[in-house]
Amino acid sequence: MNPFMLGETIKQSLFHFSVSGLIVKGPSGPLVAPLGSSVVLPCSVDQLLSVEDLEVEWRRTDSDTLVHLFQDGETQTGAHDYQDRAHLFTEEIQRGNFSLRLDNLRAEDEGQYTCTVYIQQESGETVVEIKVDGVGSSRSISASVGKDVTLNCSVDSHIPSEDLEVSWMKTDEDEDIMVLLYQNNEASPEASVERYRDRVEFFTDEIPKGNFSLRLKSVIFEDKGVYMCEVFAGGLSANTTVELERL
């Protein structure tokens, strides 16, 4: 399973970059979001601006492809691949917010994007990296009755654990079954259905590192099936599944 993170609305420290006196802010780390979702690429300055003297370019760093442009008081979409998918928050531009919303995220959107701001003789830029996570990616593991097994799930460790809610569900029965829940910065075993309550746990020391893998103890035949780890942060969610088989 590939680690994943949610990054559209996560609270995070900011990275500052200045080319010639203009300080442009961006995120301190990569943004990871699921295929098909929307993600906001932060880019801002700490000052009110006159749009008459302002130009903002969003480009792919690797290919220099134009994604979106603000010039002469108007926004313009760049390459065809970004038509109807790339948007600036137009009402926020004069407040110094040039963040880009990219909708319907595709695998090929993964990579680095440069936001360059020009104001008269000054300019500044920041680079934002997107990592695309395939929602619904899955893997299978096997376990023997009576043994313990670990179901893997992790998120990018720069997201504070207090900002996350993580649920492990068994999803292949008539209704989803709660296996274990993490919320309000702690595990909530009381949320587990009775058959799992005393047999499941997180690796507590690993949670600050973004590891929300599940230990299932004393496996029984009825444990066979599909388990989903779903992570919620702000307005986004992502999930991965693990199939427990050959018991």
UniProtKB/TrEMBL annotation:
- GO CC annotation terms, alphabetical: plasma membrane
| Chief place where the protein resides | membrane
In terms of InterPro entries, this protein maps to: Ig-like_dom, Ig-like_dom_sf, Ig-like_fold, Ig_sub, Ig_V-set, T-cell_Activation_Regulation
Protein's membrane topology: Single-pass type I membrane protein
**Where does it reside?**
Cell membrane
Q: Which Pfam families match?
A: V-set (PF07686)
Q: Does the keyword Transmembrane helix apply?
A: yes
Keyword list (alphabetical) reads: Cell membrane, Disulfide bond, Glycoprotein, Immunoglobulin domain, Membrane, Receptor, Signal, Transmembrane, Transmembrane helix
Task: Tell me the ranges covered by the Ig-like domain, including all copies.
Answer: 36-117, 125-243
Q: Which domain of life is it from?
A: Eukaryota
Q: Which GO terms describe its biological process?
A: regulation of leukocyte cell-cell adhesion; regulation of T cell activation
The record's section on PANTHER family has: BUTYROPHILIN SUBFAMILY 2 MEMBER A2-LIKE-RELATED, T-LYMPHOCYTE ACTIVATION ANTIGEN
According to UniProt, the name of this protein is Ig-like domain-containing protein
